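Tokens as discussed.
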């Protein structure tokens, strides 16, 4: 047998082996996906235990565990406003065994403020499922001379520069909501940042400030007690935590400034796994007990699939980046 022929046969053999290995690897990956999940799943919550996001994550982990007949373990990775936990998810293997809870404050607001992140909130993640929204509330002290949004705007416009609004921190959802309302309603107000929701609510109750934007967790108890007044919910729907409080839209003001919650995985997560998880979360969010439990955490449950959820994140980044630029909202870090 001549050398050229031997070389050709050798190349053909190598090609056959390579093709076989590729086919085997492809079948192995497919089999692994078909067998998913065959080991515990880690759900990263990028905030400390006991908070609203943690409570939502733990409830959903339990429900998902039942649906998949597999353990789902909550891993609290707090720090840097949720960026440490989010980075841990982005850096995880794209095998479906590490997913995370993400919110507006981890995937949209930092980008809007130009915060230096170690991850791309779009390119480094796979959007799996929207979980729902938590509307912010426009709150006032009982002494404030307005009980509707229209009256509020009239009062503030009549006293430019006199009133300020509080939020639970610089660059928080409440801060962005206040600046956004200032822009569309043409209001002259200063921002007063607090280090957390609790001290802001305490000062609002005490009358040290008379206007604030509060979240759906800490605000409702004080509203129900009559210590502060909620003029409107800044969401697409009323909050189950305060069902008697109408939305801005219901009062004739086109204004939405809620915070969304969702589930993410690392980028390049296989479509079969994304579809499986998205379907399971959709089923979970359709259950009456899930709606009731999530409502107790101030969340308006609403599922959306991967494509729609990704579009929502992209739209929010664009919106809040514009608001941050117009209001000169900058990170303190």
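Sequence:
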């Amino acid at each position: 047998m001549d050398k050229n022929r031997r070389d050709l046969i050798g190349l053909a053999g190598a090609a056959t082996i390579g093709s076989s290995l590729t086919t085997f690897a492809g079948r192995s990956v497919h089999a692994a996906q078909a067998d998913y999940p065959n080991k515990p799943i880690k759900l990263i919550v990028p905030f400390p235990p006991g908070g609203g996001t943690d409570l939502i994550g733990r409830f959903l982990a339990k429900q998902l565990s039942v649906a998949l007949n597999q353990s789902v373990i909550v891993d609290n990775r707090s720090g840097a406003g949720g960026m440490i936990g989010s980075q841990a998810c982005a850096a995880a293997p794209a095998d479906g065994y590490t997913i995370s809870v993400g919110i507006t404050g981890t995937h949209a607001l930092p980008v809007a403020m130009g915060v230096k992140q170690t991850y791309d909130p779009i390119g480094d993640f796979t959007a799996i499922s929207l979980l729902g929204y938590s509307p912010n509330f426009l709150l006032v002290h009982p002494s404030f001379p307005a009980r509707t949004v229209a009256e509020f705007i009239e009062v503030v416009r009549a006293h430019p520069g006199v009133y300020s609004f509080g939020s639970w921190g610089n660059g928080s959802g409440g801060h962005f909501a206040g600046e956004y309302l200032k822009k569309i309603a043409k209001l002259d107000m200063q921002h007063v940042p607090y280090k957390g929701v609790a001290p802001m609510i305490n000062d609002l109750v005490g009358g040290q400030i008379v206007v604030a934007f509060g979240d759906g967790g800490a605000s409702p108890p004080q509203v129900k007690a009559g210590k502060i007044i909620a003029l409107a919910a800044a969401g697409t729907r009323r909050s189950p935590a305060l069902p008697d409080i109408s939305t801005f839209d219901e009062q004739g003001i086109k204004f939405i400034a809620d915070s969304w919650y969702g589930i993410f995985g690392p980028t390049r997560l296989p479509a079969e796994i994304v579809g499986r998880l998205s379907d399971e979360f959709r089923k979970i969010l359709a259950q009456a007990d899930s709606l009731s439990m999530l409502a107790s955490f101030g969340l308006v449950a609403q599922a959306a699939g991967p494509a729609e959820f990704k579009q929502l994140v992209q739209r929010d980044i664009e919106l809040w980046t514009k608001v941050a630029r117009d209001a000169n909202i900058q990170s303190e870090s």
